[in-house]
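The instructor's notes for this session suggest beginning with a concrete chain rather than abstract definitions. Hand out the sequence below and ask the class to guess, before any prediction is shown, which regions might be ordered.
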Amino acid sequence: QVRAHHCAPPIVPVGLRNPAAMAAPPMSDADRLPPMIPAHEVKEQKRLDDLRAFRQFLVDTRSVKCLMKLFQHTAQHEMRLDNPTLVKDFLANYQDDGPEAREKARLLAEREQLRARRAELEEEAARLEARQEEIRRVAAARELWQALAPDGGAGMTVGGLFARLCGARKEVALLRPRSVAEAADAVIEPDAFCAWAAWLPDELRA
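After discussion, reveal the predicted structure:
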């Protein structure tokens, strides 16, 4: 029994059962800092990151596809790359088929539809205004007929209309135009008078 105790490992408290950890010396502030990176490595990494971001920008903006089509265009038409107007001529006719281009085409088509719709509405508004003006003029002509016609409703002769407008005195009758004198007994219907009076010039209707 004594021999078994001599062979057993020593008793260590629960919180200190890693003797290696107990033997490790404490770390200094310098040991806790990350390792220093040379300045040229930092610059090189920054350059690589910028190149990677620029490549991704070219891919996202579909510039890479545009450049590929430019080279295909030059090869297909056997054009020289040192042509000063090559890029300008190519971009003038280049049509992108990406999401932004499709959205632009959709907006342009929608704009044309809205323009056509606006033109239709303007024409409809002009027709309604003309109709409203016609109704207003006819109403004013009917009021004039009611004021000129003796009984307000039946027809009236040309001579009677002349007398109502210019007077029935003898000297006025002498100045009556020949055409009015010849058609003095002709009967003017209310609708015909209103249709004629409604479209008299504004200076005569005032």
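Then share the key points. The mean pLDDT is 80. Strands lie at 156-157, 187-188.
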